[in-house]
Design goal:
The chain has two domains: 124 residues, no CATH class; 131 residues, Alpha-Beta Plaits. The strands form two sheets. It has a four-stranded antiparallel beta sheet, with helices on both faces. The chain is an alpha+beta fold. The protein has nine helices and eight strands. A hairpin with a 2-residue loop joins strand 2 and strand 3. The longest helix has 36 residues.
């Protein structure tokens, strides 16, 4: 009976197998470690290379991995390590296709089978994404609907009559209209910003607004978008975001720019396997 494997291979990304890519990745792979603190190495096959590292089967076998994925602390730690590897190889220059979090294979044969089965999709994605990076833009409304605090009004020096029910209702209607106008202004600004940035990008992806508990940002997320931008156009794109943010009227809107990233949002499901083999 064959002994159970002690390690599996955790795959991070796929890129081309060429001397240029190998040279570019040499320093990055020497200095970065993976989700289990392991060295990351190249697994070449059919003109492609998977970047992978050995991880303990005790954590990454199917049942154990399923249990770990329910542990948010463990998941965050792995996600950060996964991202660190992708960022390192992306910074080295080659076009890389990030694989899904926790893409695990039993051995190198499984990795090579994946590369062979998805060769056409992977090569097509590399051709389409070569020389391009992903940028993220989020727009937050910093409580634009909040009315001025009551303390801002001057304290009357003479007694006033208690407001009538009609006065109270009139004030509430005015507050509601102000809230609605604030929300409309923020949404309009976000739509305008997205339209301008989409014209500067080759592709875009719109995501649902991020939950405040996950974003850890004070405010309502009204735009959560990713943009595929050519590397040589990145400085212009970043400057455009800064300029648009400065021209948005009012002080109740915050624009957040992140990147450049590997093109996570634009790889495509068929070129991003997630199952163990």
């Amino acid at each position: 009976m064959n002994a159970a494997p002690q390690t599996y291979l955790y795959a991070y990304a796929v890129t081309r197998d060429s001397a240029t890519v190998t040279d570019a990745l040499a320093d990055a792979l020497e200095t970065v470690t993976g989700v289990a603190g392991e060295p990351v190495r190249a697994v070449p096959h059919l003109g492609l290379v998977a970047l992978a590292g050995a991880v303990p089967a005790a954590d990454y076998a199917e049942a154990e991995l399923s249990a770990h994925l329910e542990d948010l602390h463990w998941l965050e730690k792995v996600a950060r390590s996964h991202q660190r590897v992708i960022d390192s190889v992306t910074a080295a220059g080659p076009c890389v296709l990030p694989l899904r979090l926790a893409t695990v294979f039993h051995d190198e044969a499984g990795v090579r089978t994946m590369l062979a089965n998805r060769k056409a999709l992977l090569c097509s994605a590399l051709d389409r994404l070569e020389g391009r990076t992903e940028w993220g833009v989020k727009v937050y409304a910093l409580n634009p609907e909040a009315p001025p605090p009551a303390s801002a009004a001057p304290r009357p020096t003479t007694p006033r009559a208690a407001p009538s029910g009609r006065d109270y209702l009139r004030r509430r209607v005015a507050e509601r209209h102000a809230h609605e106008e604030g929300a409309r202004r923020v949404d309009e600004a976000a739509r305008g910003l997205h339209a301008t940035l989409a014209a500067l990008a080759e592709e875009t992806r719109l995501y649902p607004p991020q939950d405040p508990g996950l974003s850890r940002h004070p405010g309502r997320n009204v735009l959560n978008a990713a943009y595929l931008v050519r590397r040589d156009g990145a400085p212009h794109f970043a400057s455009a975001v800064t300029g648009l943010a400065e021209r948005i009227p009012g002080d109740g809107i915050h624009v957040e720019l992140t990147g450049p990233w590997a093109p996570y949002s634009f790889v495509g499901a068929g070129a991003s396997p997630g199952e163990a083999t």
